[in-house]
């Protein structure tokens, strides 16, 4: 049964609701809105949590605590390269590669296939659980890497699925999703660094995090309000009035629910839309390339022997500082809007130069200066992410916005994947250099 928009308006005018009922309905609508904002914040937190923890644990996973043959001692390094640098034999970029390559493959194909959102969320939860268990109980390095891969698939599938699903809700859920992903960074890195600092082993710390996939299920199925796809105009009547799709749920026409954009049906139509998204994808992709080259190619080699923390702890707390900057930036889009993302690309490139120079020459006089640079790096990365998707949510609508959300998430994945590939040879090269006097 088809109903025109005008008929809906006339029906509401003919049957006015009592004032008390309207107040109650407004309160309920407001409560549902807050409920959805909270749900998307929690979904962002849980979706990226395992990914962040695996990167925070990268130095430990590659050390003798998880494998008896992955760490070079100082004497071995001297014999091989006349170096006294404290290096793992394998770069933490190897963990990054295992954490991003499967996610990249998922993001390539997921926007083009049917959604099945509820099934995907269940799969995400199971994969996150498997990732923590595999890494915690790993006796060989391949088991730990398999756990990291499970976390990567879960995170990639979740980002595409939930960003697409957010198109059915008010635009503000994009900002709370971004804030939640930023929260996963600070809470994930801080929880791992804090629990290991107070005496928990890395293995036991990961087991404590099994509560995260449970929170993911509760947030999606019990906190988030169920909504169908937005209303879509499929034709007009003889008077030129729009008719709604009879298979969609009839709602009062609002900005967030009514779209005049045509549906993207075919694979070819979706491919043809990709070039129009490059203005969003290229800047954010470059920002992520630069910052993950810093995090996985440089920070592991930035070491202050006179600091109060050992090398592994310094790396963990550098990532906590970085994630704090990401969290603050991703939570600020409703206060500060940045239209020209390319400016952030330039800032992040400067950060890469500064920390690359430090990794080679160890010139900074204090660890606190390094913390400040890393914090600024996190602010730039978080701002690029949230402002990119915020622009999409305001410049596109309907099915095109839904597809653009999923497709643009591929850009940061490409940047991170490239950074992982670049960081491994950089690690090998820098570990072979002597420590400057």
Automatic annotation (TrEMBL):
Keywords: Lysosome, Membrane, Transmembrane, Transmembrane helix, Transport. It holds the Pfam family CLN3. It is found in: Endomembrane system; Lysosome membrane. The chain crosses the membrane at residues 37-58, 93-114, 121-138, 144-165, 177-200, 206-224, 277-294, 314-329, 341-361, 367-390, 410-430. It is a multi-pass membrane protein. GO terms for cellular component: endomembrane system; lysosomal membrane. InterPro entries: Battenin_disease_Cln3 (IPR003492), Battenin_disease_Cln3_subgr (IPR018460), MFS_trans_sf (IPR036259). One of its GO terms (biological process) is lysosome organization. Belongs to the battenin family. This is Battenin.
